């Protein structure tokens, strides 16, 4: 099988599931992963034969994709803020909306000219947020926590691969005993689980079936669970004037902002993502 026929094989296999355009996008990602060649080199060397090992990889990848496995789990990598990160089913695949949250924090820290900001990320998953922040703000002290051992192992690997110093700790943020020892921070960020169980019926099969439920869902009757608990925690762990940044469920922008105001935060602000949806909230501790 040549590079060209392998590409066509992926597109034809996935087209009924994904449509031609998306099947083509995925085929490029898989071919780059398998051959290590850029798109341009794959065009130049399109008649080159795959090795037996590459053909085996190709078959395994197509079979996984046909079961709706996200392409990022198939290749084991995902791009975030210009970095290629390791991902696996222990971690949420980082989303572009979360890059916007990082951007907000980075711009605010630069504008405030904080010389050595202390920053905490709660529910770090792949470590996308703290790794990106440390890369952009090398003078910051960055700490990150998660309740999942698998996620923390992945996050540590990503920080090490990027040669960035981030401290990670296994903490259940819903348990005050678990976070009581944490120091005080200038900034706390979180993209916590925020999808109600009932919303799963409308979600893409590849997300519900493969991404970790622990990263996605909150009980239907308590959509703001993590925002309320992290809001309370941050009142003890932010310095006066420190800021809390959340990624939010687009359906609960006003409610999340009202919750922070009711907890005593000021300058509460909702930001929309590039799709025009309420996606981030910031509050400042008086
Ligand atoms: C929506 S994911 C966000 C992952 C990553 N920060 C990102 O933006 O791609 C939420 C994360 O919160 C973690 N989590 C869930 N419950 C938690 C808890 N009680 N304490 C700490 N982390 C928790 C999950 O393991 C998951 O990694």
Produce the secondary structure layout.
Layout: H1 3-18, H2 20-35, H3 39-44, H4 52-66, H5 71-75, E1 77-80, E2 83-86, H6 96-112, E3 118-122, H7 128-136, E4 141-146, H8 149-161, E5 167-170, H9 176-179, E6 185-190, E7 195-196, H10 205-210, H11 213-216, E8 217-218, H12 225-237, E9 238-247, H13 253-262, E10 265-272, E11 278-285
Parallel strand pairs: 3-4, 3-6, 4-5, 6-9, 7-8
Antiparallel strand pairs: 1-2, 9-11, 10-11
Bound molecules: S-adenosylmethionine
Residues in β-strands, percent: 15-25%
From the N-terminal CA to the C-terminal CA, the straight-line distance is 65 Å
Count of the separate structural domains: 2
Number of β-strand runs: 11
The value of Rg in angstroms is 21 Å
Order of helices and strands: HHHHHEEHEHEHEHEEHHEHEHEE
Commentary on this structure:
The strands form three sheets. The chain has a seven-stranded mixed β-sheet with strand order 5-4-3-6-9-11-10, sandwiched between helices. Strands 1-2 form a two-stranded antiparallel sheet. Strands 7-8 form a two-stranded parallel sheet. The termini are far apart. Helices cover 47% and strands 21% of the residues. With 286 residues, the chain is an alpha/beta fold. It folds into two domains: 65 residues; 198 residues, Vaccinia Virus protein VP39 (Rossmann fold, 3-Layer(aba) Sandwich). The model has no long low-confidence stretch (mean pLDDT 97). Strand 10 and strand 11 form a beta hairpin. The longest helix has 17 residues. The protein is built from 13 helices and eleven strands. S-adenosylmethionine (SAM) binds next to helix 7, strand 4 and helix 11. S-adenosylmethionine binds next to helix 7, strand 4 and helix 11.
